[in-house]
Design a protein that fits this description.
Layout lengths: L2 H18 L7 H4 L9 E2 L2 H12 L6 H8 L18 E2 L7 H16 L5 H12 L15 H10 L3 E3 L7 E5 L3 H4 L5 H5 L4 H11 L1 E8 L18 E8 L2 E11 L5 E7 L4 E4 L4 H8 L3 E7 L3
Parallel strand pairs: 1-2
Antiparallel strand pairs: 3-10, 4-5, 5-10, 6-7, 6-10, 7-8, 8-9
Helix pairs in contact: 3-5, 4-5, 5-6
């Protein structure tokens, strides 16, 4: 028998089997890399369903603000990341704190920008945002302070620092809270060997760190504060008690032509878009001002 004919006959069953499989269209981003390994991800089925639904639904004019507003009314729940030893990636859309709200929204926006729709792609981006260098490598690789988070995500091209003439107040970082209060952190209590690592990282990032917008200037209108856009990340400056930034949220320009804050509020026990202006919020909290980051998505 002809050798060429034999090879064709041998390959025929394989060709037929391949042709019998349905062809599923994938975006270039989805075929560029193997799926993210979910074996070390803590989540509920409802989380993965909601993520994929959000990634597929029609968007509003502003991607970041669209996703942030989706979570308005969602319960405030703190310490949702402190649930596994060793450190695994936690996905929890059922309850959010100020940091996990920001990370959740940015991971959704980044995944959408990449043209991806899978939960695994979202998880890959969430890890990239949450951990130093974009790689989860234990508890000490998590970006625990805003200053760490800001600079690391700036280096990864996920955010840029917003500045301008009204940003007049010098920011000096002196993060010592984790070193001073290891008893407040379950992982530092369980793993004393992590403490010197955290201390070294605190010291390495402390010092002058640009400028922030003073509270007195936060009541200006969009003409004076045109460098701040809807969906920008707002960091509430504290600079006392060993903490740089005490709270996070998203900037929203209200119909009153004033800045407002969309945030996961521990006071209101849920995600809210504040009716009071950002300046009023800062005055009530006795905070000196804000730092602002621009997500490189949307």
């Amino acid at each position: 028998m002809n050798v060429k004919k034999v090879k064709t006959l041998l390959l025929l069953p394989l060709l037929l089997a391949a042709c019998s499989k349905p062809v599923v269209a994938q975006s270039p981003a989805e075929t560029a890399a193997p799926p993210y390994d979910l074996s070390e991800v803590i989540y509920e089925k409802s989380d993965s369903i909601e993520v994929e639904r959000l990634l597929a639904e029609p968007l509003g004019a502003d991607t970041v603000l669209h996703y942030a507003r989706h979570f308005v009314g969602r319960p405030y729940v703190g310490a949702t990341l402190e649930v596994h030893d060793p450190e695994w990636l936690v996905v929890n859309l059922r309850g959010l704190d100020c940091t996990t709200l920001v990370e959740t929204v940015l991971a959704l926006a980044l995944t959408r920008q990449q043209g991806c729709t899978r939960f695994a792609d979202y998880c890959a981006n969430l890890e990239r945002i949450r951990y130093r260098g974009g790689v989860r490598d234990g508890y000490t690789s998590r970006l625990h302070y805003f200053t760490w988070w800001k600079h690391d995500n700036q280096a990864k091209g996920i955010v840029t620092v917003v500045s301008g003439r009204p940003f007049t107040a010098p920011m000096t970082v002196s993060n010592t809270y984790m070193t001073a209060h290891p008893d407040k952190y379950a992982m530092l209590t369980a793993h004393p060997e992590f403490r010197p690592v955290i201390t070294r990282m605190e010291r390495a990032a402390n010092g002058p760190d640009g400028r922030y917008l003073p509270t007195a200037a936060c009541g200006r209108g969009p003409a004076a504060l045109n460098m701040i856009k809807n969906g920008d990340v707002i960091g509430i400056v504290k600079m006392s008690g060993g903490i740089d930034i005490s709270h996070l949220g998203f900037a929203v320009w209200g119909s009153d032509q004033k800045l407002h804050l969309l945030n996961a509020s521990s006071l209101r026990k849920k995600v809210v878009e504040e009716t009071m202006t950002l300046q009023e919020y800062l005055q009530r909290q006795r905070r000196p001002g804000i730092q602002v980051l621009r997500p490189c998505v949307g």
